[in-house]
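Throughout our pipeline, every protein is held as a single compact record rather than as scattered files. Nothing more is needed to write down the fold, since each code stands for a local backbone conformation. For reference, a complete record is included directly beneath this paragraph.
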Amino acid sequence: MKLELRGITKSFGALVANDHIDLVVESGQIHSLLGENGAGKSTLMNVLYGLYEPTSGEILVDDKAVKFSGPSDAMAAGIGMVHQHFMLVPVFTVAENVALGAEAISFGGVLNLDATRKKIREISDKFGFDVDPDALVEDLPVGVQQRVEIIKALVRNSKILILDEPTAVLTPQETDELMDIMGQLRDGGTSIVFISHKLREVKAISDTITVIRRGKVVGSADPSASTTELAALMVGRAVNLNLNKSDAQPGEETFKVTDLTVMSDDGVRLLDNVSLSVSQGEILAIAGVQGNGQTELTEAVLGLRKHAVGSITLDGKELLGSSVRQVLDSGVGFVPEDRQDDGLVGEMSIAENLILDLYKKAPYSRRGTLNRAVIAKNSVEKVAEFDVRAQSPQDAANTLSGGNQQKVVLARELARPLKLFIASQPTRGVDVGSIEFLHKRIVAERDAGTPVIIVSTELDEVLELADRIAVLFAGRLMGIVPGKSSRALLGLMMAGLNAEEAQEHMKTQDAQNAQGDQP
């Protein structure tokens, strides 16, 4: 089935999210839509799926114009969508989830789940999904839940499948499995629109690539194009994607977490007996699929978790039980994972945001009165040093792009001498050009002798920055491995094997592969 978008424009008031976009997806093709977060990719797909009505333009399926008043119209036209955040009911079975919205009602209003189970098994067998129709969704790994979403679309006879950032919550092994599934679907005639900002994955699976920037199509590329070429299209300028980082020169081990356990308010164990340490002059990256205890770990260090036991020490001083202010005053710099809610006060100026943790101290205030001249001078210097793109330091922080907001947070946290620097999801929603800058500043802080902890669900970022990598799964530490460890090893640990088990598993796989290669 062929899909064509002609001149699609979508406006939200004065904001033009999509600006006269033209796109053609041929039958049996994987067409990747590549762009930064906020470029307009998801908005465009929501228009295609009937969730938004376009301001102007038209959609054609097999050269016939169609109009969608909702997702049911899109599905009826043969278009299915797997959202970045799954649309599943956890307490329902796979069959019950698949039947929702496509109910086959028998007399008396009872769901015909037998027919649904049969269809699930047929699709699962055809593509090797290995999905049990009677399994509860909440008991399934994330990668299998994604397969359920794909089955939902295929049960509805979708010939065009939209995958919106589908690898965001997957381990490397689950990502590879998804790529295999996409290849099978394409070979079976399904057209796929693959939405992503990850250059490596787009190059690996695409037949063709369209790049979107600030709501406009800025070019097309072949998968053979280099990552440098693709990044330049995404950003609009040349970008150096290679971080020139020297080997770490670790000093004294000054930060230690010992037997840390964190409980939720209702008694659920969120972090289970975690122990780790960081030395001066090294970067420890915390890896894992989102939701496996990373947030709870950083919040415990910051003093934001009430139900935490164990020990957290910095320079021999116990931090557990301290207030957030006491932790920050002890020399901890912190970049939160949600800059808009936790890192900035959007309505305040850039200048004011740059002193949120320093405003009570000289020279920014004296006897309770802010020194506006010093604050203004500081803002001009930091805006220049961190390349914050703004008309004026007096602009409100919420007028900045995501990358520039992150630069403001980083500039504030690195404005004072630190004994520990923590950055959680430091480049989430940040353009490629800003990532380049932020990574260099993080490494510079390490080279200045500060212990650094990076929490990231982006495995490329972890491998780029880390001197050592700690992997969390279900709140437990699977082990700490060198920064140059393989994706395969990290993926197994992210799926629940400890470091020793993962290494043994890889040895077994290598031996089996070697044996299979023998004549």
Q: What stands out?
A: The radius of gyration is 25 Å.
